[in-house]
Amino acid sequence: MKNFCLMFALLGFAMVTTVVAAELKVGDDAPDFKMVGSDGKTYSLADFKDKQAVVIAWFPRAFTGGCTKECKSMREFGKDIKAYDVAYFTASCDPQQKNADFAKSLDLDYPILCDPETNNAQAFGVVAPGKNAAARKTFYIGKNGKILAIDSAVKTESHGKDIAEKLGALGVAKK
């Protein structure tokens, strides 16, 4: 029994340290994601490394109030975001067809990345506990693949404007 308790305690410790170690922070290498977009194309961090900065704005679910506001804001401020040398996306754990329908319904001019198996969401540490959905969090990734900033306090109605301002504050090059 004593050995069983020790083994259980060590297993619990290993699980806790794994969760803590997986939490991304500024300066870390961003996970090398690979996801299909709402436009049917496949995107990966490797496509942009040493070429452009990348923004990925994770959101919980397509066709919900906050996610709709966030995506519309990013479309409305697309011109401001596109002034920077950046590739930008929203991302969710929804299936590709649902995100494609959502993107079309909002007339988005950028792709929504799809991660229905949550592998990429797990790598970014955004899987909502007990759900097949992502937490709302935005990652700013430099040309070198390092995380420049993480926004955990996204304001859905102004997120497009906030992204453009953050890119400027981070010193991301303009086109």
Describe the structure.
This protein has six helices and seven strands; from the N terminus they run αβββααβαβαββα. The chain is α/β, with parallel strands linked by helices and 175 residues long. It has one domain: Glutaredoxin, CATH 3.40.30.10. Strands 2-1-5-4-3-6-7 form a seven-stranded mixed beta sheet, with helices on one face. Strand 6 and strand 7 form a beta hairpin. Helix 2 crosses helix 6. It is globular. The N and C termini lie far apart (65 Å). The relative contact order is 0.21.
Q: What ranges have pLDDT less than 50 throughout 5 or more consecutive residues? A: 1-21
Q: What can be said about the biggest beta sheet?
A: 7 strands, mixed
From the coordinates shown, what is the CATH architecture? 3-Layer(aba) Sandwich
Q: What's the mean pLDDT score?
A: 88
Helix-and-strand structural type: alpha/beta
What is the number of helical segments per DSSP (H or I, 4+ residues)?
A: 6
Approximate shape: globular
Instruction: Give the SSE string.
Output: HEEEHHEHEHEEH
The proportion of residues forming helix, as a percent range, comes to 25-40%
